[in-house]
Design a protein that fits this description.
Layout lengths: L3 E7 L3 E6 L4 E5 L2 E5 L1 H22 L18
Antiparallel strand pairs: 1-2, 2-3, 3-4
Length: about 80
């Protein structure tokens, strides 16, 4: 592995960076997973899908609309 060249994203417990060899690294605490761009793309899609599903579970979408209490602006 080359020297850590560029952090693409980072937070308190994880980071994504690209080394000088061109590999993308997903680092979580002491775990460091190295992958090429195609693998990273698949991993990112899986994370995005999981986040979408978790968000739906936490904030279920209601089909009901409360028209009486809806804030609207009239354009003339």
């Amino acid at each position: 592995m080359g020297y850590k060249a560029e952090f693409l994203s980072q937070a308190e417990v994880c980071a994504i960076y690209q080394c000088l060899d061109g590999h993308i690294h997903l680092k979580y605490r002491t775990l460091d997973i190295t992958m090429d761009f195609c693998d990273f793309h698949q991993v990112a899609e899986v994370f995005v899908e999981a986040l979408r599903i978790l968000k739906e579970v936490e904030d279920p979408v209601s089909e009901e609309v409360d028209l009486e209490n809806m804030n609207t602006h009239v354009k003339v």
